[in-house]
Amino acid sequence: GFESKERLEGDDNITVKDVDAVIFGMGRVGSSLYLHIAHDFEHRILGVDVNENKVEELKQGGLHMVQGDGAGPEFWAKAPGLIDQLKWIMLTLPTHEANVAAAKRIRRMGYTGKLASVAQYHDNVAELEALGVDHAFNMHAEAGAGFADDLRTWL
User: Fold this and answer.
1) Closest among 22, 41, 36 to 102, alpha carbons compared
2) Nearest CA to 133 among 96, 85, 100?
3) Is the per-residue pLDDT at 134 higher than 90?
4) Which residues contact 6 (CB under 8 A, 6 or more apart)?
5) Is 7 helix (H, G, I), strand (E, B) or coil?
6) Could you tell me the CA-to-CA distances from 36 to 39, 42, 67, 80, 122 in Å, in that order?
7) Which of 33, 81, 85, 88 has the smallest C-beta neighbourhood within 10 Å, fewest atoms?
8) What value does the mean pLDDT take over residues 72-87?
9) Nearest to residue 109, comparing CAs of 135, 84, 79, 86?
10) Is 92 exposed, middle or buried (0-12, 13-18, 19+ CB in 10 A)?
11) What is the C-alpha to C-alpha distance for residues 111 and 81, in angstroms, rounded to an integer?
12) CA angle at residue 121 from 115 to 125, to 5 degrees?
């Protein structure tokens, strides 16, 4: 047949030993979250993003990164056993719909650890919590509160 004996680029299984936490979505929020909590997890953290260029750029910056989609079955198939060893999964995907899809899949797969997600609106927080998200972080409300705290030093 025409089947190749070599694996395609990106088909390798993801090495997951020494990982306690995963962040899905490594844009501005996800990469900042990673940098701020890596120490808390003793650097046993993995960043996951669909964008290959972003993954390579963050790898060069010293972050433990892989390419993948947390809402898709392919990622979990390439990381056998990962879901059972994780203590935390954090969702910082670019849209509420993407965070909802990932949360649904992760809980359907039987994940029992802590699940956190960003949210943009109060209604999103309630929806995520109803799906089994332990902590939904309202980014806009918290950004306003943080801005106010910052401004107080100048008043």
Assistant:
1) 22
2) 100
3) yes
4) none
5) coil
6) 7, 12, 21, 27, 24
7) 81
8) 89
9) 84
10) buried
11) 11
12) 30
Q: What is the DSSP letter of 81?
A: T
Which residues, other chains included, contact 120 with Cβ-Cβ below 8 Å and sequence gap of 6+? Answer: 96, 138, 139, 140
The closest of 36, 42, 51 to 19, measured between CA atoms, is 42
> Tens digits of per-residue pLDDT, 15-49?
677 899 999 999 999 999 999 999 999 889 999 99
Residues 6+ apart with CB under 8 A from 117: 90, 91, 92, 99, 103, 128, 133, 135, 136, 137
pLDDT at 90: 98
Mean pLDDT of the chain: 89
User: How many Cβ atoms are within 10 Å of 129's Cβ, its own excluded?
Assistant: 15
Of the pLDDT bands very low, low, confident and very high (cuts 50, 70, 90), residue 3 is: very low
The answer to whether residues 46 and 25 touch, using CB atoms and an 8 Å cutoff, is: no
pLDDT at 12 over 70: no
